[in-house]
């Protein structure tokens, strides 16, 4: 009897060791998305990053993802489930996943967590974000060069710092070319409603804008621009197929390099927590090929892009706030904290910021 | 003048899918069935319309596919609630959830592809007339279909014997059954018609309004269509009025913002919903009128005795 028991125990121990060995062979990296990967926008781009990881590591890494995870209690369950399913590194891609991730990270100290656009870190929880505003500055310059009327339309979702930062950066870019440049701003109160975004684009064109840009996720506004023979900018992903004659460039996110780097760090055992805000120079913000513009405008855009990649910040003084009070002195650069909490317009924007 | 015409055209395009879905649901509800799955049928129509249009290269076949798939999807609801007498509210809600999920799965291959747009009507000379030309003779085909549908349904419900029978079933299925009317057959056809209309509305979204496929592109329009039926107090011609007020409200607020009129956009966005609530309060004040219009058997399952 005793012999049998020992034999059984050794077998069990052997089996479980074999199981661990097998699990160690392949690293499991997991993602949690707030939207559907079929949105051809924000979540889609994150998923492209996941595919880059698959491509880069082949058999060494296995990936999994959960899409359409609502922010809040559901998110906590999603992260917990992935952590239990042997994910060694988990990326959460929406701001609202912050507190659930903090909680789950505490319960699973051996799992690495990475949170996009948040600010709370822990020993096994890092945060990462992209400086989308850098691309918007270049777009503002292009708009000022290309607009015959000196008037652009801007379709926006919600008055959060991320969006306000984008509007300001676009405007500063435009003003650097044409100090009298005007913006018409329409809030659609939604990240994603193709119909409403299309209607907003039509309204802006009807009222005289000849270029539009957007901080919402669908391709609908660009399609309107294409139909009317006017111009616009893409958002999140390259939308040239939807508007071959209208898209000037698109402010796209490329998370691939960062994801590959972090997964590599886990494989090497060198992963450390951190807080990074990646921009054009890191390859996280990418302006898709400049199209539908003359060569001199293209050259200017490329130069500005190179300048930003070289470390220059679009929020460099002198910049005044909307009401005329000075904000940045000559040569002064805005610090990241101010940018991440931005709730005011710069001078020249003719709109009241909803509070 | 040009800007006014443009605004009216935008409103018409925005209102059309609401009207089409609402007129279908109106017939369903007049027969005494409450189908809350409009959003689900609409999104199925949208993905089928885009897919068929993209694969065949013909937006017209796309529109046809949207109608057929919308009807087919509503058949599921009909079998559940009519033949198996399940709870209509719960079944309708699940139809919406199923449609949103299923369409996302079916549409994975269509994401990020530009689609075919249904061409606008163009009649030489007539369409070139100033102002009325583009408004009356230059819109997309679904706009004309929507007008025809409303007129057809109004005529059918109140001017034909079959329409009268349908309404009587909606008011009292037991009495209708006692008179020897095949209640379930009528209801089946009504539900299928509703599904076809919701599918058509979805097809308008992915083939006219914004010619593309993206998950969840209906963005709650099915629910607005349901509200419109109540807004119209189950009278066909009040549907378009409601739909156009709704569209005007939505687009008016976008224009107001672009003009720089300082009214909070959140308030303007909620105006159409407030209007619906106001109408609901008004129509329910007069008990007699409400009773006259609301199908009395709405939402009640009917099991014929054997």
Unreliable runs of chain B: none
The name CATH uses for the topology of the largest domain in chain A is Rossmann fold
Domains counted in the coordinates of chain B: how many? 1
Largest interface: A-B, 39 and 37 residues
Q: Helix proportion of residues of chain A, in percent?
A: 40-55%
Query: In the CATH classification, which architecture of chain B applies?
Result: Orthogonal Bundle
Determine the number of helices of chain B (DSSP H or I, runs of at least 4 residues): 13
Arithmetic mean of pLDDT of chain A: 89
What is the class of chain B in the CATH system? Mainly Alpha
CATH topology descriptor of chain B: ABC transporter involved in vitamin B12 uptake, BtuC
Major sheet description of chain B: none
Distance between the termini of chain A: 76 Å
**Series of secondary-structure elements of chain B, N-terminal to C-terminal:** HHHHHHHHHHHHH
Q: How would you characterize the overall build of this protein?
A:
The complex is a heterodimer of chains A (355) and B (306). With 355 residues, chain A is an alpha/beta fold. Chain A contains 11 helices and 14 strands. Chain A has 2 domains: 26-130, Response regulator (Rossmann fold, 3-Layer(aba) Sandwich); 133-252 and 287-340, Rossmann fold. In chain A, the strands form 3 sheets. A 6-stranded parallel beta sheet of chain A has the order 2-1-3-4-5-11, with helices on both faces. Chain A has a 6-stranded mixed beta sheet with strand order 7-6-8-9-10-12, with helices on both faces. Chain A is globular and about 60 Å long. Mean pLDDT of chain A is 89; it is low at 12-23. Chain B has one domain: ABC transporter involved in vitamin B12 uptake, BtuC (Orthogonal Bundle). Helices cover 73% and strands 0% of the residues of chain B. In chain B, helix 1 (2-30) crosses helix 10. The longest helix of chain B has 29 residues, at 2-30. Chain B starts with a helix and ends in a 13-residue tail after the last helix. The interface between A and B is large, with 39 and 37 residues.
